[in-house]
């Protein structure tokens, strides 16, 4: 690959990522809105699975470019997204798929998100492939200064003579290439963690992915935290009505991205207003502050660096705006503006965007 090709990859990947993210976001919402249309749901899940595959290929291109930095791994939304992506495969075999979590747990870990998701896809995909009855459980916990994600199935287990070789290249029981666990263990080690087979017998297998808590931040300490509650809800997802009536203002110049953000907020039952620019948002916020009703949350889009967004954040705070502020940016590695509450990645995974918006709204005081 030439230097010129390497320079074009991030831009090309971005052009693919934008429409794919919008497609996935709207497919998720259609799936939620058509719970009783079995024929339509099957087609929508096929569309979603193929869109996820295309997005994974694009992410792999992005990941191969040294010019792009990873924004970190958000365990709650990422684990949920992997489970939702593979849920149709589990349901097709009449298998139950559930997630459980036990606080304290980190809300963010400073590792490559794409690689962790790759490991989780391999573990959960294997569990579904080998399990014929019963189900699979994903269990998150904190253990010995590590974040631990266990994938537990009710499959046939792994024969005793094969257990010492389960992570060898081409070690397979006939499903797949036999490279998935080999690659996953190497990835886990490269991330500073480990992947182990912690148990396997006739009642099933238990694989454990650990990542060191020294890389973690924003610890969730309560089992009733909204992030844990959202993570554990049944995978036949229902609309979240907890934020009904919250007022959200979105400044987003991209039509598709603006409609997606607006749709996510409306799906949370928020009263949503969409404008094209940060100056439009500032003027509307200041006008509402004079005559009401105030906005509970303002989302400001930033095309590249956060410099422009910081100016509008500072200006809104200087004019006594007391609601929550989220900046939407393509560079989540820059520090969050001091007077801002959160940052979301433009054209990122809809599940991560939704969870960040939900968490910010949950912690906000009601507007006057």
Describe the protein.
It is a single chain. The protein is of the alpha/beta class. It has three domains: 1-68; 70-238, 2-Layer Sandwich (Heat Shock Protein 90); 247-362, Rossmann fold (3-Layer(aba) Sandwich), CATH 3.40.50.2300. The protein contains ten helices and twelve strands. Strands 1-3-4-6-5 form a five-stranded mixed β-sheet. The chain has a five-stranded parallel β-sheet with strand order 9-8-10-11-12, sandwiched between helices. Helix 9 (307-318) links the parallel strand 10 (297-302) and strand 11 (324-329). Helix 4 (113-130) packs antiparallel against helix 5 (180-190) and helix 7 packs across helix 10. The protein is globular. It starts with a helix and ends in a 6-residue tail after the last helix. Mean pLDDT is 77; it is low at 1-5, 64-70, 237-241 and 364-368.
* Count of domains: 3
Beta-strand percentage? 15-25%
Please give the order of strands in the largest beta sheet: 1-3-4-6-5
Shape: globular
Terminal CA distance reads: 57 Å
The chain-level mean pLDDT equals 77
Give the name of the CATH superfamily of the largest domain.
Answer: Histidine kinase-like ATPase, C-terminal domain
The total count of strands amounts to 12
Q: What is the CATH topology classification name of the largest domain? A: Heat Shock Protein 90
Report the C-alpha radius of gyration, rounded: 21 Å
Question: Which H/E pattern describes the elements?
Answer: HHHEEHEEHEEEHEHEHEHEEH
CATH architecture of the largest domain: 2-Layer Sandwich
- What's the CATH first level of the largest domain? Alpha Beta
Main beta-sheet strand count, sense and barrel state: 5 strands, mixed
Low-confidence stretches: 1-5, 64-70, 237-241, 364-368
Helix share, percent: 40-55%
Alpha plus pi helix count: 10
Computed structural class: alpha/beta
């Amino acid at each position: 690959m030439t230097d010129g090709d390497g320079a074009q990859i991030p831009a090309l990947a971005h052009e693919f990522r934008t429409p794919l993210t919008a497609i996935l976001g709207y497919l998720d919402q259609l799936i939620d809105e058509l719970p009783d249309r079995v024929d339509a749901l099957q087609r929508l899940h096929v569309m979603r699975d193929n869109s996820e595959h295309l997005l994974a290929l694009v992410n792999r291109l992005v990941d191969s470019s040294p010019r792009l930095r990873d924004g970190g791994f958000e365990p709650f939304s990422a684990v949920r997204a992997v489970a939702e992506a593979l849920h149709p495969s589990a349901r097709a075999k009449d298998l139950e798929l559930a997630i459980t979590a036990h606080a304290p747990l980190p809300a963010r870990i400073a590792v490559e998100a794409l690689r962790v998701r790759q490991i989780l896809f391999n573990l959960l995909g294997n569990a579904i492939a080998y399990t014929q009855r019963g189900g699979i459980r994903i269990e998150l916990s904190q253990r010995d200064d590590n974040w631990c994600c266990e994938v537990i199935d009710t499959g046939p287990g792994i024969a005793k003579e094969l257990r010492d070789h389960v992570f060898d290249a081409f070690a397979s029981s006939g499903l797949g290439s036999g490279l998935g666990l080999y690659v996953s263990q190497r990835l886990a080690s490269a991330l500073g963690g480990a992947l182990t087979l912690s148990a396997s017998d006739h009642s099933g297998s238990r694989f454990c992915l650990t990542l060191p808590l020294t890389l973690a931040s924003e610890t969730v300490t309560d089992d009733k935290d909204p992030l844990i509650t959202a993570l554990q809800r049944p995978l036949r997802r229902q609309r979240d009505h907890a934020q009904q009536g919250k007022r959200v203002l979105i400044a987003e110049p991209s039509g598709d991205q603006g409609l997606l953000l607006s749709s996510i907020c409306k799906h949370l039952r928020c009263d949503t207003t969409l404008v094209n620019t940060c100056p439009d948002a500032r003027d509307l916020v200041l006008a509402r502050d004079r005559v009401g009703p105030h906005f509970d949350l303002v989302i400001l889009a930033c095309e590249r660096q956060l410099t422009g967004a910081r100016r509008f954040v500072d200006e809104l705070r200087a004019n006594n705006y007391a609601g929550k502020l989220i900046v939407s940016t393509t560079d989540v590695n820059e520090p969050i503006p001091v007077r801002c509450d959160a940052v979301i990645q433009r054209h990122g995974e809809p599940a991560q965007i939704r969870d960040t918006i939900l968490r910010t709204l949950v912690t906000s005081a009601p507007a006057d």
